Amino acid sequence: MVTKGNAFDPNCPTRTILDRIGDKWTVLVVLSLRSGPLRFTELRDGIGRVAPKVLTQTLRRMERDGLITREVYPEIPPRVVYTLTPMGASLIEPISVITDWAETHVPAITKAQAAYDELA
Amino acid sequence: MVTKGNAFDPNCPTRTILDRIGDKWTVLVVLSLRSGPLRFTELRDGIGRVAPKVLTQTLRRMERDGLITREVYPEIPPRVVYTLTPMGASLIEPISVITDWAETHVPAITKAQAAYDELA
DNA sequence: CCTCGACGGTATCCATTGGTAACTGGCTAC
DNA sequence: GTAGCCAGTTACCAATGGATACCGTCGAGG
């Protein structure tokens, strides 16, 4: 009845992690850092319009989860560099599978939506 | 700079679909329907405590996106059966990749969180 | 009778969250 | 002196998520 794990138990940590991964910004941060470390503003500019507050929240969470590291260089102006940890990098593959699926099915979904709205 | 697609463009449909897939309940609905059609209450009971309103919203969205079908049997008491479409079923694989990742990394993430909170 | 429960939802309300806009501090360049 | 850079933070507000209660219709049970 239940999957191999127990994602159906609300108290299961898998569920929490699933939520985390499913987060819009988390996915985009991972993809952004794919090709190397970035600074805060580089992330902000690379990801189409994120509120800095939200980006900070996302990055802190990801740091806490061990997906990225945050290195602060106490210079003026300040410099903070975010880097994927090996665990964070291991997320690229699963995320790619999802984005591939999404891109493949965009036309079908758009079409389904149009059909649905048609007879509404 | 950008992935194969353009998930970084906020107006890109891929982004919308990504949000959809990332949705907590959508994932659980797909997994629930994996082994066959289910009725509303079966879904509700199978997924650890969902508010009916939220489940309805989720199901309507998924129906609109062409991931599931909704069949109403005008009986008393009413019977409504939800079934994965082929497209919906094609989501099982990608989702499994993610859940596998999540389950594999639960210990590491939990450990990372503990370490982070330790020195906070 | 008449009330109770099954089913597939709505309706209402509140808490949490996502997001916007403005501001901070410290230094450097104009 | 004042404008700007970076990496945020601090209000503040709108939207969303979620809990709870309720609806109509019917057959079953008392």
UniProtKB/TrEMBL annotation, chains A, B:
SUPFAM superfamilies, per this entry?
Winged helix' DNA-binding domain (SSF46785)
Q: Which InterPro entries match?
A: ArsR-like_HTH, HTH_HxlR, WH-like_DNA-bd_sf, WH_DNA-bd_sf
* Keyword terms of this UniProt record: DNA-binding, Transcription, Transcription regulation
Domain HTH hxlR-type positions:
12-110
Say yes or no: keyword DNA-binding present: yes
Q: Which PROSITE patterns match?
A: HTH_HXLR
Q: Which Pfam families would you find in this protein's record?
A: HxlR
Q: At the top level of its lineage, which domain of life is listed?
A: Bacteria
What is this protein called in UniProt? HxlR family transcriptional regulator
Native organism is: Kribbella pratensis
